[in-house]
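User: Structure tokens for this complex, please. No commentary.
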Amino acid sequence: MGRWVVIAPERADRPSAFLRPVPEQDGGVCPFCPGNESMTPPELLARRENGAWSLRVVPNRYPALRTEIQMSRNGLGMFDSMAGVGAHEVVIETADHRTTLAEMPLPQIEAVLRAWQDRMLDLSRDMRLKSLIAFKNHGVPAGATLFHAHSQLIALPFVPDALEAELSAGRRHFAGKERCVWCDIVAQETREKERVVLESERAIAISPWAARSPFELWILPREHRSSFETASADELRAVAEALRTLLRKIDVALEKPAFHLFLHTMPLREPLSDSYHWHLELKPVLTQQAGFEWASGCYINPTPPEEAASFLRQTEVFP
Amino acid sequence: MGRWVVIAPERADRPSAFLRPVPEQDGGVCPFCPGNESMTPPELLARRENGAWSLRVVPNRYPALRTEIQMSRNGLGMFDSMAGVGAHEVVIETADHRTTLAEMPLPQIEAVLRAWQDRMLDLSRDMRLKSLIAFKNHGVPAGATLFHAHSQLIALPFVPDALEAELSAGRRHFAGKERCVWCDIVAQETREKERVVLESERAIAISPWAARSPFELWILPREHRSSFETASADELRAVAEALRTLLRKIDVALEKPAFHLFLHTMPLREPLSDSYHWHLELKPVLTQQAGFEWASGCYINPTPPEEAASFLRQTEVFP
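Assistant:
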């Protein structure tokens, strides 16, 4: 059907690859806590202060894809396969087992975004890798299998469908208007205010038009920049600040929901595009998986984005 | 971003539109049980034997879309909207509160498929409706909010993405080879056997190449027919038989998992196509929602379809 799927049998060996009783807390020893560094593969990057680490990036122990294999493509009758070349890394966002991303001080959230950026720059040197998705599953309903705050990076040997769809929507808009569609969205939302949750000089957070799920949120840097790779420190700080406030708002408004957070950015080694604009998307997980969405690719959202934005604007959080 | 989303605020009024504690059993009175017919809107179709009904179709009480509104399209700056014209119906598959689809006798499963077909034929007379998805969410993790066995029909005023992607993949294959891609899949799988779970004269069940999730299964009628609307009684019986055996196999092999079941068929009023082939898809829900899939549109599947098929072939069920 023209789609690529990653078949990753090693992931079925994970303690909780399948099925129901996933522990809300790690029953035993947390592999992400200080003192247990030997439980993860050797680190790829770390931030240290006074000898203790405050953030680590390690290869995923149950990788969906890996770099140490030969790239190959095969045909099998009418079917096509390629070797699962790629990278799958884990960003351990804090040394403290109990602190969630929402609870971290601003510089720590900035450090998480900077770690994504550093790893993206490093991975972009592998010419077999075409794109990178940074994402975070928070909470069991979102698919998190460990409590300790972490995000993940997956670099792929192709450009995945969801990113390709955004890239081509951006190209279509640009072809007609010679403007970036996300810059146009930022401009229209800034004027209309209805779907804006918060704004600063460098960033804006909205519940987008045609939000696919209740309280879907986007954070966009105001300045046009296609790739997260080249975002400036000021921009990362502004986005981290917006993210921190949003996470604290949804914690209050939606009672600490599970959520997916992810980064959409240009394919690797293509930093300059007039028609794409990097951004973060945040999707609280408030409903169970629904068959209609899977069957149709069309979303039913019971919460108009204007209501979500208005509700979150009015939600007070303390700095 | 070029995608349609159904914004359906009325669905937020459902008893369990949001959030965690969804009862595994209906706490109170089941609106789908005999005697409680007044709890549903008036029926659109029913099968009766000896005065008692054995299957009913009713409008959804919390519809995502409805037929009684004016069709309209609007622009709002750069954004587009259209009125939520459509239909959302519920098929109450049995009078018995406790019987699951897997546990029903074959003629009852046939009756469910026939009810889908009858409603599809009736809805296709409304020229505003372009496509129909029949689907079933079984179990709380799959999004079911009531225990009593039921499926749903949603007719849309557009062709949704997932169906459009299949239609165009079919057209591309046909353009090169003048053969239906699903007929080719049936032929190759029948030869290779590796991904086949069961076969009969008129139908085949496989775990498809590039399955997107563990134990994803497809049931295909062998005969080329683009639309479910025109499927014969013999064909429906063969598909019902395959479905019944598959459901019983996954109940044994995967310990009564939650699942999504759905029908993919041609858009309404287009019964004849050389390049599309109606089929059922069955997706056991074995993992939590994962952010990577949402972020990328790319699936990571820890279970190779060959393993899933082999496991299910060996799973014994009693007739």
